[in-house]
Structures are given as C-alpha cells and as structure tokens.
From TrEMBL, chains A, B, C, D, E, F:
UniProt protein name: N-acetylglucosaminyl deacetylase, LmbE family
Presence of keyword Zinc: yes
Xref: InterPro entries: GlcNAc_PI_deacetylase-related (IPR003737), LmbE-like_dom_sf (IPR024078)
Protein's GO biological process: glycoside metabolic process
Entry keyword set: Zinc
Any one Gene Ontology molecular-function term assigned to this protein's record: hydrolase activity, acting on carbon-nitrogen (but not peptide) bonds, in linear amides
Transport found in the keyword field: no
Natural source organism: Asanoa ishikariensis
Pfam families: PIG-L
Signal peptide residues on this chain, from the entry's feature table: none
Superkingdom of this protein's organism: Bacteria
C-alpha cells in the first residue's frame, strides 16, 4: 500500500498533512511526495536557481527525518503553475506508476492561487489516470480509492475527516524546521500547530489534528465486512 | 455494528440508500430506519390518518422483505417538518440508544423542502448527541463515526462514495413496490433505477450504484493498519 | 430557424441533448454541431491522429443517421482545451455565420474540465458575437435568443427546462451506438438512458427527458401575444 | 391565459415586475396579485391595523390604474413571514384556482428576509400544487409552466430573461406613486427606474428593462413548431 | 462611541471577538454584550434553570475581569433559537437604545445552528432598526456603521479584517477561564488560541489575531480626509 | 496617501469607481489608474492599433478632466487577458512603487471574463507584492491596507461599503463622455447612473452611490482611537 502527496511548494506537504505522512510511515506504508514547484520565487535576494536548490535540499532533509524515501520535484515556476500537456502526462504517469491507495492534495477553496491550481491539476490527473486514455502516457490505468484534501492558507468549511496527530507532533515540528529558508518571514510552525490545536479540540482536550475533506473513498467499502 | 437511516417519508430510504441497506443486512448488521413523517399528505382522497396508516404498513412490508427489523415512525406532519425541542430530543435519544456506526440522511441540496429540513435536523441531532449536553435526553453521548448523505430529488454535485448495488437490485425493486399507494403518480423505480444506472457506469459496464457525499468518516481511520 | 450545438467531444452532443437535436430536426430546423475536440486522447493504443479520424467518422455517421447536415471539427487537443484568440474568433464567426435561434452547451458545474472550459468559451463567444466588436472576425453581430445548458458528467442542481425525448429515444440510441470506439469502457447509453429515466419521471410515468438550465430566453417573449 | 404574482409587501409587485404586469394586461391576460403581508410594520407612528388598511387601499388604487382586477391580501405579519400549514394550503389553493400560465416571485438571493421567505414558500407551493397531494386543499392539480423570479433589494447575479418595459414606464411610475405612505423614506421610483436603466442598456440605448431568472419554462416548448 | 456584541451563548463573545472587546475597552469605549441564550442545555446533569444561572454568573465574572459593564441575557432556549416578533422587537430596541458604532456577530457560515440563527436574527434586526418601522419598538432609528462577523466553530473562508490581540491575550485567557462549567469537555482556550496563532502569522511572527468579515463599513468613510 | 485603480478597459474605472476617484482627488490624494488592456477589440471597423490609440487618448482626456495625473497602459490584448510572469511582475512592481493606501478592482463575480481575470490577477499581485518574494521584481514589499471591489457588468450580491457620489456626478458624467468611441452602442452613463440611483436610495432620497465589497481593511483599525 502506498501514499502519494501532491504539494504546491516544499513545506506545504508538512503543513497540510505532515502528521498523516508520519503516521502512514509508522504503519509501514511507502510515502511519495510530488512537489509541483520548488518554491523558487520565495525570496528577493537569492536567485531562482539557487533558491530551488536550497529548498529541494531542505525538503530532502525533512523527508529523511520523517522517513519519506521518494520525492519528485516537477520544478514548475513558483507563482505561475499552469496546466500543460507535458505536466498532465507526467502526473498521470506518476499516479499509474505508484498506484497509490491514498492521494493527498490541497483543497479546492484554498486562497493561494498555486494551491487552487494544484487542486485542479491533481483532480484532473486522477480522472485521466483512471481510464484507458492518453496515448502519451505509460503504465496501466489506476483509479485511486481514497483522495483527501488538506488545508494550508484557507481552513476548510466542511471537515469530513480528522487525523489525530498528537503523537507525531514533535517529529513534525522537527521536519518543518528543516525548511530554514522560509521560516524568517512566516512562522509556519505556529500556523500548523495553531490550526492543529483548533481542529484537535473536537476530538478531546489536548489533542492535535489535521482536517480534511474526503473527495473520494473506496467503492462499496462501507458495507464490506 | 448498527446502521441508522433517517428518511423524510416512507420510500425515501429505499430510493436514496435501499441497496446499501440490503448490503449492510447481508453482512449481518442491524439496520434501523427512522421516518420523519409518515407521508400523510400524499393524497387528495385518502385522509391523513388513513394514509399514514397505509404508508406505515407499506414501509413495514418493505422492511420485512429486506430484513430490516426496526422501524421508528416519528409521525411529523408531511410537508411541514419543523425543528422543535421535542423532536430534537427524540432524535438525540435515538442516536444514543442505537449507537450506530453508520448514519444515512438526505443531502443538503436536495430540492425537496422536507429533505432539506431532515438534513438539517439530523446534522444538528448528531452534533447534540455527541457531547454531554441536553438534560432532557437519555443515554450516553455517542459520536457517529460514518455519516453518508444520499440523493433522491436532486442529484449530488460532488460524489465522494459509490455503493455497488447491482447484486441487490432485484430485491430493492421488490421492496420499493411494496409502496403501492405512491406508485400511481410517479414511477419511483424508474427514478431510482435510472439514477443507479447513471451512477453505475463509472464503476464498470452493467453496474448499478448509489451515490453519496461523505459527511464524516472515522477519525484516524485512513492511517490505521 | 437554426440550432447550434457546442460539444467538448464527439458523443457529448448526443448524451447531453441528442433527443432535442432529433426533435428540432423533425420540426424542420437546421442543426449544426461544433466539436471543440475530436476526442483524440480517448485511447492508449490508437495514436491521436488516427483516433481523431475514427471519431470524426463516427460522429459523421451518427449525424447522417439523425439527419444533422452540418458538423464542424475545431480539433483542439482533447484534455487541454484552452482559450486562444484564434479559437475565440472562430467561435464568434460560427455564431455570426449561422445566426442560430438556439444554442446548446455544457453546464457550468459539469465536473469534466473540458466541459467546464467549453462552457466558459461558449458563453464568452456568445457575448463577443453579440456586439460590433473584434476586428478579426467576420459577419454581422448576432445575439442568440435562447441558450440552454445540458448535463453529461454532473447532473444539474437546478433544472429549469425539460425536453420530453420518449419518442426519439430509439433513434438516439442508434446514433449513440455509432460511437463504437468509445463504448468499450463506458456504457454511454446506460448513462444517457438512466439519467433520462430519472429526469422523465417528473413529467409522467414512462417518459424520458433531457434536463437543462435556461441561460437565456428571448427578450420580452413571455409577455408577447 | 392568466398570470399570478406573489409579492412580500404591497409595492414589491411593481418594483420587481410592474412593467411585465402592464404588458401582460395590454395583451389581454388576467393578472392576479397575492400580497403575503400588507406591509403593516412599515411605520413607527401608524398602528398596524390602520397601516395595513392604508396600504391595501394604495395597492388597490395602483391596481385600478394598471387594470389589475384581482388582488388577494394574505395579511401575514410584516417582518415575520413564516411557513404554516394554513398558509401553505391557501397558496396551493390559489395556484389551483387560477391555473396560471405564468408565476412571478422574488428571487432566492434577495437580501430581505421576507423576500427570501416568500421565494421559499412559493417554490414549495408550486411543487405541492402540481400533484395529487394535500387533502386539505381544493381544486385539481396544476403545474405552472413558466416561473420567473424578479429582483428588488438585491440584483440578480445571473439574468436569464429581460422584459423591455420602456413603453409602460410612465404608467408604472404612476402606479408606484399610489403607494404614498411608503415614499417618504425611500424613493422607490428612483430604485426601480435606476435598476431598469441599468438592465435596459444591454437591449439598446434608451431602453428600460426588468430582469429575471427563469426558474421554469414549459416542457418541450423550445423544440415545438 | 459604543460597541454591541451578539453572542449565541456565554463564552462565544470571548472566543469570537474577546480580544477586540478588550481593545475597545482599553480605548474607552462602552461595550455591551447580548447573549441570545444562557447556554442552559450545556449539561446532562445540571438542570436548565440552574445551569443558566451558573453560566450567567460566569459571564458576569468574565465581564468584570475585562471591564464590560453591560450584559443582557435574552434567555432563549439553548439549541432552539428561533425568530419571533418578541425577540425581534427586543433586538431592535437594543440597537436603537445603545446606538453602537460597532456591532459584532457570528458569521453566516458557522456550522453551529445557533450561530447561524444568531447571524440571521442580528442582520435582520440591524436592517429593521435602521428605518422608521415597527410600531412595537421604541427609540429612534439607528443605522450601525460598522458590522463585523467573527468565527467560532467554522473558520471564515474570506478574511477581510484582522485584529491584533497579542497584547490582550493573557487577559482574554483569564476571562475565558471564568466559564468553568464549560471547560471540562472542550478546551476553549486551545481552540481560541490555536486559531489566533493561525490568523496571526500573516501579520508578523509571534502575533495573535482575531479574523473577521466586514459586513458593513461606514458610508463614504474611505474617501474622507 | 495614494490610490491605485485597476481597470480591465478604459472607462471601467469611471463606471465602477469614478465617483470615488473624484472624491479622493478632491481630498488631495494622488490617484493612479492602471488599464489592463486598452480596449483594442471594441470595434469591427477600426484596427486594433488605431483603436488602442484612440481609447488611450480618451482615457487621458477623462483623466485630465478629473485631475488624475498618472495612467499606466499595460496594453494586454482585449478579450484575452492572461496571467503571465511578465504581467505579474509588472503588477507587483506597480504596487511596490506606488505603495497605495487604497486599491480598487473589479469584483470576483462580474460576468465579463476580462473583469474576472483582472480580479484574479490583482488579488494575486497584492499577495505577491506584500512579502519578500519574487526576485525579478523591484521595490520593497508593500501590503495594501484597504482593498475595495467595484461593480460594472454584474451587481454585487453583498454590498459592504457605499460611497456617496451625488456631489461629483456631473463631473463623472463629463469624464465618461470623453470615451466617445464607446458610446454609440452602449449608453454607459445610463448604466452607471442607473446603478448609482439604485444604490443611492438606501442612503437617502436623491442620493447617488457607488457600491463595493470590502476585500481588506487595515489591521486593527476598528479598535484604534
């Protein structure tokens, strides 16, 4: 069983579903993270090429710390993510190659344009990967059973799934702190931890949680024995 | 493990999630159906009391045919379903008494006012049943892990779960045909079967399906072993 | 009086409004179908050029069977429909050349990205064709009086018009079966017929219907004698 | 052929669709107006009973001026319009008694609570009047073919029908000025005329228009000869 | 200058806009809090009358600690808030009596039914209080210039105003801890503080913020000198 | 203090917020207008280059008449406004260079595609201009405190701010009449004036107003002394 995460920029995977990643890994599942961009616009002083390299190294360190073995950097231009046939075919191929049980992606109403665009691109790629279509692609069709949308810049209006991440919060914080180049301006840990506190209160006092919208759950699974 | 179905009128349970009911029963789960009204306004010639009695008998026959053992008729006035403290407390008590793993209810955007109101009443009752609140109620708090919204008069815009009901379709048709008093004006089987065909094509040729929105799925279940 | 249909792929015209096409033709109106793409991505084994040719031939056969005389293949790349000045000018020219009384297009909330994009492109072209604008275009301005949005992959939430297609259903099925290359994976007839059954029940038992949203109806027509 | 107008308060009929009323009358159709309330809360100095009487007289004078022969005052309490079985049955009866070809009502998103509630009540009554239901009602079932929603306090987001009211604007102004008790605080003519100017520009320079959403248009009418 | 807060239950004022209250008070404005219910359903063991009394005392202690001088308990039944003429007139009177510059209320999309209903009731009361209407009310008409909607159970999708509450956070925590009867089940401080951390990161590292939607801001204020 | 206006075409600035511009100028603020396109598609007989020149001259005359000193023509192709890195960087630079207190832009739901796209581009540029990001840009980060969305082709559903423009209406009309090339087909003054009448009635009889949605207002400003 494997898990495929789509993140607009390095660190969105951790803010949106880093605790879930840690829990999947703890249960022995392979986790693969696909970064749509390498966040190369996130500075006024470091040039794009250098910044992309720095952020990919930070993502790699965070992955090592968590135990994620498999990262893909699609290296689209940060701030200008666009649908192209090349990108679409790469995304279809990634889905068909990894054949994940679970996909995580940003939710539809996130206010950040790159997050919205990532949502659209992933939803489209999942549909296109599921059938015998698109000659330029490789691998057999694969329909992902479980698809979950996470929150980063805009909280979800309807939460349909909570992941209790209390026990992996310390590890998650260490992973997030690998993204040193980004921590000067915005305290991403305060952001992730604050929202996890807010979401966790509905489980029990003292719990931390990540919140999701269930976009898809496996056909006929609820009536199965 | 038990299943609790909320239906605005007798037959909505079958149209919206009758195949799912049959499958839960086949897997040995207890299914309980709560009818908000007994559909007592569904005629111009039969008086309300007589019609309610007829429709409750039809629902009882359909339940026997399927194997549903437990029906509750809340007997609110058809067409004028309203939130009252008495109704709310009864609904909280039903949730706490049955402690279901699964709840099924009409979806939020169904165009029929009684379906919309049932949606609101159930969502509210589930929240109120979950905590140590409402002195007039009995039973210990119970938070329902899985909540699924079904479609009757208005199809869902976003389907997040499909139930393959091909193998129970014949049984479902027989159950629906127990509602004889309602079949003169509207062909409910054509309605349910037509939509099941439309939903089933995305599973495989020849399949029939019921479609749902996942309102809630069990906390931390997706990362569990 | 003429009718202009915009379809994302060959066969969407039949699934969405094929019965309406047959009825317009039976009443002597010229029907023109514009295919945004030739569905050239709908296979993993047949190359794009060959598949486009096959699907255009299938569409041509279906058109002959129905009596549609006039097809236009815009041949945009399936899966990657995009707004460009060239496409926009061709669409404006088509509207001004045919001066249709009726336009049919996919509805705004259809879940398929090519359908959504076709909706946006057609709505925009209708506005641009209506006034004395866009130097690169030909023909006099034409404001289309009646514009109807049809449903394919996502049912409409609000239906404001029903077309009874019971009497042309057999013909429609034959036309849809001309699209042989596409029928292996998805049973499009089950899909169209299932939804037509569901929509038809609100007319009368045994009727089949296509459902639409009225985007525009002719100015001052409702008060006319 | 007859026309049935539902208005939350006296004068809403004129602001929302007064020009359309005048045009229907000019073409010989019977127009019937149903006022949900008599606007009895519209003052701090005149008591409710007196104000209701004044406003009903104003509505009667405006109706005489336009040529409307038939007014019904439901006399619900202004500001507190509520769904009750009695009101619902009266509304069903009105629809079945008049058997109108056209119904006009406030649109769904009007910001005024009484307008929203009128919308909900009328939509529900139209559905309930259409079938053989509700024993307490009289008259044979009647399904209204054309249903149009007008704008008063909140403009429509999507206009699907325009009525050119230029030629009846003077008459409409005279009718609106019959509502003397209401003209001190808000210049309703400026409101109606301003919006009619804004809506009319898309027809031609100098035209005035009322804008509507088409909620329902007659089944199969667009393909008829 | 005065500030009027509408809260569904005691403690919602603090969770939603308690920091703003503290800042208004620090700047010398009178703050008045209106509790729609006294939260009398928030227990299974304490009867409604006793619980209402306990929670009103807790609210009074929190108010004293913050410096709020003026509390109104409308004492509607917790969980069953409903629009009635009596409630509406009391709310209109409160607005006209206090003539506040600022009103705070729950936002429209809060998932808790009592919060949604409070939103609707306040928006309606503000409109009704603004004009010379409603004979049963007292006081001169008053149109509230600034109206802000706060978040409690569902975060806002669009934030149009942030209040920096870092400097009053300790005081706010002490005030919230006065609501002892409610702190056993849900850690409201974790909830409020978590969300304030999440909202504060967009101001600067280490800041805490309350987020709002601006429903109304004073006419012509942005162009004034 | 300065004001930055983003307009899809020359004249949208006047229709949407021309009265506000006049009032800002009267109070001594610098107003800068950025035209996304020069409206070069607005004719069938004048070629694009000539038309752009004519419309820029018309905009310049209108600006002189009002007293606007600073116009920027971005000269994107009318009807085909698109997000590109070059455009985005120019927009970020404009924001950082002018450091405006106020930004005005079309609202999100305007039915005209160029208006929608301008909305998206401006919202994105404001976010990108606010932080230390985007190496290709110049100037220090600047977060715009007040952001207001105006209405042109589609009225706002929720108005959160009104600007009383009665006293500058004559001047505004003169400015709008500078756009001679556009006045043949559509009476833009009737459009702007009609909507201003409609919006103005809620202030007082005889007033004219521009309506806005407040997208952003300055942090902590409402509690300040």
């Amino acid at each position: 069983m494997s898990v495929l995460i789509f993140a607009p920029h390095p660190d969105d995977d951790l803010i949106g579903c880093g605790g879930s990643i840690a829990k999947h890994l703890a249960n022995g599942r392979a986790v693969h993270v696909v970064y749509m961009t390498s966040g190369n616009a996130g500075s006024r002083v470091i040039d794009k090429t250098s910044l992309a390299q720095i952020r990919e190294e930070e993502a790699t360190r965070a992955a090592e710390l968590l135990g994620v073995k498999n990262l893909t950097f699609l290296r689209h231009d940060d701030g200008y993510l666009k649908d192209t046939p090349e990108l679409a075919e790469r995304m279809i191929n990634l889905v068909r190659q990894h054949r994940p049980e679970y996909v995580y992606l940003p939710h539809e109403d996130d206010g950040h344009p790159d997050h919205q665009e990532t949502h659209r691109l992933v939803v489209k790629a999942l549909a296109q990967a599921a059938g015998p279509w698109f000659q330029g692609t490789t691998g057999d069709p694969w329909a992902v059973p479980t698809v979950l949308a996470y929150e980063v810049w805009t909280p979800l209006r309807h939460v349909s799934y909570l992941e209790d991440i209390t026990d992996v919060a310390t590890l998650l914080r260490q992973a997030l702190e690998c993204h040193k180049s980004q921590l000067g301006e915005i305290d991403y840990w305060a952001m992730a931890y604050g929202l996890a506190q807010y979401r966790g209160v509905t489980i029990a006092p003292g719990r931390l949680a990540e919140a999701f919208t269930v976009i898809s759950s496996p056909t006929s699974s609820f009536t199965a024995k």
